[in-house]
Eukaryotic translation initiation factor 3 subunit p66
Amino acid sequence: MTMTDHQSGGEPHHFTAPVIQDNPTGWGPCEMPDQFKDMPYQPFSKGDRLGKISDWTGAAFQDKKYASKYASQFGSGSQYAYFHDEDESTFHLVDTTRIQKPPYQRGRFRANQRNMRGRGGRGNMQTGGMQSLGKGLKARDTYKRSQVKRWGQGRPQIKIRDASVTVKPDWSTIEEMDFPRLGKLSLPSIKDGEDTICCGELEYYDKSYDRVNVKNEKPLQSVNRIFHTVTTTDDPIIRKLSKTEGNVYATDAILATIMCCTRSNYSWDTSSRR
């Protein structure tokens, strides 16, 4: 087919028809075009949402609702996957065999034994001031250690402390409370306490004792004091208050002992009088 431009009067223009791929056995082109060879193909859909360029946390969604928000409906291909090939050219095996000790140490020890036998005899053999045990003594020592470990003889013995009060058979039990019950005991009906009288003497306290440590020493000073440890009935202030106020009295030492009774290791008792 030839086309001629009559107005310009030039040479005729030739029309070249394109190459048509004819596939008699199927549909579509028979060969891959040169510009599309060796090009990876990733299936896509126009309905997919655009996400990040590089998202390494895409598979780590905690909420399943957003797990496939930016995922493709065709899935991810393996053409962009990274495969690490191990380089075994620099691989070396490590020698883990046990290093054997030189044999001259054992021979030297045996030679010393023979020399000691020749000097002092078999019965007077001494090696460095220590006596070596024979097979029978070693077996006996091993047996003793196993028995001690088995029956717990090596453990510290638990001291059984005597009770502070000997319970007589003719006594009648009014009420008994165990430690868990005392720990959970609560008295909501009791109000906050009020100070009836303030007595005693508050002396000066040297705060330099609070900074005492290994590097900062401070010698202790002995003071001649008399600490009166009296019972409740012998306390003159409590005896004075018992005439006008209250019906149950106790000293601070007795109250502290009762409050710490669930943690006490020693036996103690209190006496109550009407």
About this structure: The radius of gyration is 50 Å. The first helix runs from residue 104 to 120.
